[in-house]
Amino acid sequence: MNPNPAEKTENPEKLPKIEVRGLRKRYEGAAIDVLQGIDLRIEAGEFVTFVGASGCGKSTLLRCIGGLEHHDSGELKVDGRAVDGPGPERGMVFQHYSLYPWLSVRENIRFCRQLRVHTGERTSAEVEAASGRADALLRLMGLGAVAEAWPAQLSGGMQQRVAIARALMSRPGVLLMDEPFGALDAQTREVMHELIAHVHRLERTTVVFVTHDVEEAIYLGSRVVLMAPRPGRIDTVFEVPLPARRQPEMKHAPEFLALKRRILERIRATTGMDTDHELLERLSASAAP
Ligand SMILES: Nc1ncnc2c1ncn2[C@@H]1O[C@H](COP(=O)(O)OP(=O)(O)OP(=O)(O)O)[C@@H](O)[C@H]1O
């Protein structure tokens, strides 16, 4: 058994999709590092989920990988190249969908390609080809019937599908998702779980997914990375002992429930909580919009 699952050593010759070594970051004026000693290797095509107490730096780490934040020291590489800003090879989806309200669903999905044509980065032929991709994504996301609707006419779940389709438009090798389903009701979340698992299989995208929901983390991830606060660091990496293709009934399997219990206990230990009740209160307070 690999003593440190944060480092996948089965195939050391192969270039990892994402490689983080000794990463450290401190926000200006803060007394403590928001991230310290982060070591992580994520292989191409993996679906890795992150959980941990509020404020342990999950979003900051995701934003560093996305190039939206700079780290102070250590290495952070995607496809072997140091990250020094955002790029089309890394799509991002956040909890709040931030769609353009004056554009239709279809235009929202195509927006970045159209923008590049105006800035001269793409030829119109390339944009034509991209329209085919936009249509394919509309179908994949079940948005065909609402392609000409405005975002305000859609439910939260539909809007988040548009945001995911937009993030996939540039065929990113990496999809970074920060609490993407956090604002959705339980039933819509379940539908979105099946959808994102399907998209992951189909597009073979590497997914890094931050959530407060331990069940969601286990159901979607092949590994669950548990972070701890003050300073923000990786505490434990759990391998998920389930077949790659998940089915909703697996949520009731003994190995699923045992892992959920272990992760919740560990979160409780890293936050210094004494009771489940305290932990639940803390988790639900941090999950509130
Ligand atoms: N731009 C910023 N400037 C200063 N401090 C920040 C900034 N962004 C986040 N922080 C602080 O860094 C810490 C980690 O925040 P971050 O959002 O990364 O944690 P998180 O684990 O994603 O939290 P949550 O689960 O509550 O979303 C928090 O204490 C937060 O207040």
How would you characterize the overall build of this protein?
The protein has two domains: 1-89 and 173-289, Rossmann fold (3-Layer(aba) Sandwich), CATH 3.40.50.300; 98-171, no CATH class. It has 289 residues and is of the alpha/beta class. Helices cover 37% and strands 20% of the residues. It has eight helices and ten strands. The longest helix is centred in the last third of the chain and has 18 residues, at 186-203. The N and C termini lie far apart (40 Å). It is globular. The strands form two sheets. Strands 6-7-8-3-9-10 form a six-stranded mixed beta sheet, sandwiched between helices. A four-stranded antiparallel beta sheet has the order 2-1-4-5, with helices on one face. The protein binds adenosine-5'-triphosphate. Adenosine-5'-triphosphate (ATP) is lined by residues 27, 30, 34, 52, 54-60, 286.
* Major sheet description: 6 strands, mixed
Average pLDDT, to the nearest integer? Answer: 88
Helical proportion? 25-40%
Bound ligands, each once: adenosine-5'-triphosphate
State the fourth-level CATH superfamily of the largest domain. P-loop containing nucleotide triphosphate hydrolases
The overall strand count is 10
Number of domains: 2
N→C terminal distance? 40 Å
Alpha plus pi helix count: 8
InterPro entries: AAA+_ATPase, ABC_transporter-like_ATP-bd, ABC_transporter-like_CS, ABC_transporter_ATP-bind, P-loop_NTPase
Family: Belongs to the ABC transporter superfamily.
Organism: Sphaerotilus natans subsp. natans DSM 6575
Protein name: ABC transporter-like protein
